Amino acid sequence: MATDISREMVELVNKKAKHEGLTDRVRVANLRASEIGVLADEYGEEFFDGGFSHAGALNMEPALELVPSQLRRLVRRGGAFVCSIINKISLFELLFYPLVLRPRKAFRRLGHTVPIPISREPPLNRYVVPARFYSPKDAATLFRPDFAFESLQGLQIFLPPANLARYYADLLVAFMPLEILEETLSRVPPINAWGHHSILTFRRS
Q1: Confidence of residue 117 (pLDDT cuts 50, 70, 90)
Q2: Taking Cα atoms as reference points, which of 192, 204, 184 lies closest to residue 152?
Q3: 124: pLDDT confidence band, cut at 50, 70 and 90?
């Protein structure tokens, strides 16, 4: 069961499912994250074994506080919810942006909202979505008591995030030791809380 706030994206998933012969196994719905609980009206309470939210979708949900209780309606007791959230503190950005003389950008996530372009490429880079950033502790607090925090993995702690991928491509050899370092430390506290993204696993209580 896939959901997205974009009707066009939902239609695209439908087309892909049809092309792959998976229409009997894939369902889609045009919903924002804070509306996810309506699926219980169709499928029933605690129907799903688990759930997953990709990239920064939850960062762009202005009513994120409504999401945990709605997910609780959908996920069976003991089921997992895994989500990727853009972190409030990015070690890479804190180190990188002062070096390129853009210190304000290093600390931009500590404010309330940041306008994020929906694409890095023109003409869509003219359109932005307000986003908020959450530390792993913020997220764990938000999902309690509906879900118990289980694990945390940091992504892009020492490596460039997607918006700086061109630097990574140009300096690939130089970044190889950092890849090894990240693979080694991405689950080790407190370093796992300093990634560009945080992958959090929660367990339905």
Answers
A1: confident
A2: 192
A3: confident
Domains of the chain are 31-88+132-204 (3.40.50.150)
| pTM, 2 dp | 0.88
Helix (H) or strand (E) holding 173: helix 172-185
DSSP bridge partners of 201: 82, 151
| Burial (CB count <10 Å: 0-12, 13-18, 19+), residue 141 | exposed
Ranges of H-type helices in 20-84: 39-43, 67-74
User: From residue 10, how far is each of 13, 14, 82, 194, 197 by CA, in Å?
Assistant: 5, 6, 21, 33, 24
pLDDT tens, residue by residue, 32-81: 999 999 999 999 999 999 999 998 899 999 999 999 999 999 999 999 99
**Tokens 């890849």 label which residue?**
179
How many angstroms separate the CA atoms of 187 and 75, rounded? 26
Amino acid present at 32:
R
Tally Cβ neighbours within 10 Å of residue 95: 11
Long-range CB contact pairs, 1-4, < 8 A, 24+: 1/27, 1/28, 1/29, 1/39, 1/43, 1/48, 2/26, 2/27, 2/28, 2/29, 3/28, 3/29, 3/30, 3/31, 3/33, 3/36, 3/39, 4/28, 4/30, 4/31
